[in-house]
Specification:
With about 300 residues, the protein is mainly alpha-helical. It has 16 helices and no strands.
């Protein structure tokens, strides 16, 4: 565990910064979203659903801001060569950076979610502890996926400006914020199948594409745990679109497919598989490039 001291210092450095505690404050405001429709569907488990709102904007943006300089910044300043003078391999440096940044982000994030949970219990009563623990575990996996993506990009590129531009434009804007808006048009162009998101066709590829982003995969998995519907959108939107007489552009499997006809790869557990892929693939590329690359 030679990487542990590096991870500890990374976490301590983040926890001493103001930015990470601003994340905690933002999550307090962002995640507490009571809803009449959700209460009717989930009852006290609406509080469990509050955890899901950690995905989608606040945490991905915070992960980028707090992590894009992790390796690229040290490469630019020259301190990375000093770090490699320690008895650490490049793989151990990568691991230490990931674990340290994950811990530094997770502590204030989970503190905020804990406060929201207590408020939900006081206001709406006790929820299912098994559902809560399952959603919490998937949330940890989601955070790990975000940190892995950010640290991987920071390890691959040479400049901090390149890391910031790649992550904010390619990851946050395109993949996280606007991906689900782009999916119907992209799918139509690729397949020639017209897609009206308010009346989606029963096309497995369309729904698979909709859940390929980290947040989409996270929503799929946590919606399955909440029993809120099979969709890559946040659970209030899914619950709404599945109500009789409601219309929404949130793609839900239960809206487009007859019962028992959806492809197996659209099962909610597929969200976990996609999240794991977002951890393994970027880190594999980063490890290869970082381990073999020139640090100059």
């Amino acid at each position: 565990m030679r990487w542990y001291p590096l991870a500890r210092e990374e976490a301590r450095a983040l926890l001493r910064s103001k930015g990470v505690w601003l994340l905690s404050l933002a999550l307090l405001v962002w995640t507490y979203r009571p809803s009449y429709d959700v209460w009717n569907e989930l009852g006290p488990d609406m509080t469990v659903g509050f955890l899901q709102f950690a995905g989608g904007l606040v945490v991905p943006v915070a992960a980028v801001i707090l992590g894009y300089r992790a390796i690229a910044g040290e490469r630019a300043s020259g301190s990375l060569k000093f770090l490699l003078g320690l008895p650490l391999t490049r793989g151990e440096i990568l691991l230490g950076k990931i674990v340290g940044r994950l811990a530094g982000i997770a502590v204030p994030a989970f503190l905020a979610l804990g406060i929201v949970t207590v408020a939900g219990v006081i206001q709406y009563g006790l929820f299912s502890p098994l559902r809560y623990l399952a959603v919490f575990a998937v949330t940890v996996l989601y955070l790990l996926a975000l940190v892995s993506i950010v640290i991987s990009v920071s390890a691959i590129v040479r400049r901090t400006t390149t890391a910031a531009a790649t992550l904010f434009i390619g990851f946050v804007l395109i993949l996280e914020i606007f991906w689900q808006m782009f999916v119907p048009g992209i799918y139509s162009r690729l397949t020639g199948v017209p897609v009206n998101p308010y009346d989606p066709p029963a096309e497995g590829g369309l729904f698979l594409m909709d859940r390929l982003s980290p947040t989409g995969a996270y929503n799929v998995a946590t919606n399955g745990i909440l029993d809120a519907g099979n969709s890559a959108w946040h659970h209030p939107s899914v619950i709404s679109v599945l109500q009789p007489g409601r219309s929404s552009n949130a793609l839900a499997v239960g809206e487009a497919f007859d019962p028992g006809t959806a492809p197996l790869y659209l099962h909610e557990a597929g969200g976990i598989v996609i999240l794991v892929a977002w951890i393994v693939i970027p880190l594999s590329i980063a490890y290869y490039r970082f381990d073999e690359g020139d640090l100059a």
